[in-house]
């Protein structure tokens, strides 16, 4: 796509409000980030040298990880043309931004490998179960020996079939959905972004978010089936949880 010139102050504003929208869905995100940082440093016995954030959106987590570990090479992967542009415009140049599709297991060919930490936050619910299983296998390929994969998403332990959960949003999720819609609606009024929004609409027209949610045990089993020697709960807040999987 042709690069667009976005006003840096507005980009900063959109990224800040995005962060607030995500906190509406998962108020415990700051605690999750602290736990991830501690686990990543413990896994390597030092700060990670190579970090990859999959489905990183406009890059708030990538930016915070880059600040926390200034010597690390941090890469963000996403598919959404709007969010990729906000990431490119808002992130420090040290953070690499790449476009790839997590629904295809070929993404490690774009990102390269040797990562000490791979994070996937609030993203796997966009994928169908087969693609999530394939993502675990591809992440294994992209990790360095001893590397840590963290997958955080809606992982309720309510025993319900996932189609039932879609009918029963958790507390606060209605307000968060509204804030999400307002955030995207706000961008719709910005002429410089119109082309990117049209490209986004084309991209996602035939591939709406899968909306698949599984419990943490499902994710742990998928990670083990993909060859991770260790996989288990790293963090939980209500219906949201994070799985940590490590290569041994
Ligand atoms: C709810 S957002 C979360 C973004 C970010 N992780 C955060 O916490 O702010 C989900 C992200 O997954 C990305 N995504 C969805 N499907 C994808 C795919 N097939 N390949 C790459 N990224 C995808 C979306 O573009 C979006 O940035």
Automatic annotation (TrEMBL):
GO terms for biological process: methylation. One of its GO terms (molecular function) is methyltransferase activity. It is an enzyme of class 2 (transferase). Keywords: Methyltransferase, Transferase. It comes from the Bacteria. Its EC number is 2.1.-.-. The keyword Transferase applies. PANTHER family: TRANS-ACONITATE 2-METHYLTRANSFERASE, TRANS-ACONITATE 2-METHYLTRANSFERASE-RELATED. This is Class I SAM-dependent methyltransferase.
């Amino acid at each position: 796509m042709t690069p667009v010139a976005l006003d840096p102050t507005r980009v900063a504003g959109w990224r800040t409000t995005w962060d607030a929208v995500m906190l509406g869905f998962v108020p415990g995100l700051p605690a999750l980030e602290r736990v991830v940082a501690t686990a990543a440093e413990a896994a390597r016995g030092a700060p990670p040298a190579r970090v990859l954030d999959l489905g990183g959106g406009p890059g708030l987590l990538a930016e915070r990880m880059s600040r926390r570990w200034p010597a690390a090479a941090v890469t963000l992967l996403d598919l959404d043309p709007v969010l990729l542009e906000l990431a490119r415009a808002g992130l420090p140049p040290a953070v690499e931004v790449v476009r790839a599709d997590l629904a295809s297991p070929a993404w490690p060919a774009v990102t390269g490998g040797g990562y000490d930490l791979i994070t996937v936050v609030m993203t796997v619910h966009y994928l169908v179960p087969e693609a999530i299983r394939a993502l675990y296998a591809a992440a294994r390929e992209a990790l360095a020996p001893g590397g840590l994969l963290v997958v955080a998403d809606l992982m309720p332990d309510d025993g319900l079939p996932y189609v039932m959960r879609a009918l029963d949003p958790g507390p606060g999720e209605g307000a968060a959905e509204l804030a999400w819609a307002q955030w995207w609606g706000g961008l719709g009024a910005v002429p410089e972004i119109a082309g990117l929004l049209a490209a986004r609409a084309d991209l996602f027209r035939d591939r709406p978010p899968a909306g698949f949610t599984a419990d943490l045990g499902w994710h742990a089993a998928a990670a083990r089936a993909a060859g991770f020697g260790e996989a288990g709960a790293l963090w939980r807040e209500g219906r949201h949880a994070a799985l940590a999987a490590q290569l041994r």
